[in-house]
């Protein structure tokens, strides 16, 4: 699985992430919100093209799991052929739950009900993280279009064992094993 968050309508950033999806042979694309709109607090990202982003993602609609971000709306859904307005969703991986959310409602400071050994994947902060905190995995792929905190654009990858945050040069920025809970 390839995890991306905070596209904010940047077509070149999405194209870079999708090249990595192909290279890593990740069949599922998990989008953790803020797909098309840059939002009123953010500057326009390079290559801002919401319609182009929607068209490119629509070609992969049957392999996308998407979550609503604070910048996503019903108008955005009209452009997308995959559901993107769920506030959260759950994946079951190796018998344990991973909550998918954007991070503005449920997130690191407001966790959903998680058992020890389960986890949360979120965006919103634009800060990459892959680590266990109090027996729960916290995973944020960072932002592919507008990273914060001096970070570079990044995405997440789950290979069936490890959750990794990777930059577009292929460097691993953070990693946590799902099986070592």
From TrEMBL:
User: According to its UniProt record, which cofactors does this protein need?
Assistant: a divalent metal cation
Cite the EC number. Answer: 3.1.4.-
Q: Which residues form the Calcineurin-like phosphoesterase domain?
A: 2-159
Q: Name the Pfam families for this protein.
A: Metallophos_2 (PF12850)
EC supergroup of this enzyme? hydrolase
Q: Does the keyword Hydrolase apply?
A: yes
What Gene3D superfamilies does the record tag this protein with? Answer: 3.60.21.10
The GO molecular function terms of this record are: hydrolase activity; metal ion binding
Q: Which keywords does the record carry?
A: Hydrolase, Metal-binding
The similarity comment for this entry is: Belongs to the metallophosphoesterase superfamily. YfcE family.
How is this protein named in the record?
Phosphoesterase
Q: Which organism is it from?
A: Ferrimonas lipolytica
């Amino acid at each position: 699985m390839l995890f991306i968050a905070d596209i904010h309508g940047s077509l070149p950033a999405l194209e870079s992430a999708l090249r990595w999806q192909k290279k890593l042979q990740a069949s599922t694309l998990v989008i953790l919100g803020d797909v098309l709109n840059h939002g009123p607090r953010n500057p326009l990202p390079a290559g801002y093209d919401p319609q182009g982003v929607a068209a490119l993602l629509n070609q992969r609609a049957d392999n996308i799991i998407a979550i609503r971000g604070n910048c996503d709306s019903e108008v955005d859904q009209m452009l997308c052929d995959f559901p993107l307005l769920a506030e959260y969703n759950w994946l079951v991986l190796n018998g344990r739950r991973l909550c998918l959310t954007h991070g503005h409602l449920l997130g690191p400071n407001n966790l959903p009900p998680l058992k020890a050994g389960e986890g949360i994947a979120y965006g919103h902060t634009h800060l990459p993280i892959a680590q266990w905190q109090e027996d729960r995995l916290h995973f944020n792929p960072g932002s592919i279009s507008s990273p914060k905190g001096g970070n570079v654009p990044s995405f997440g990858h789950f290979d069936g064992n490890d959750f990794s945050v990777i930059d577009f040069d292929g460097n691993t920025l953070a990693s946590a094993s799902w099986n070592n809970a």
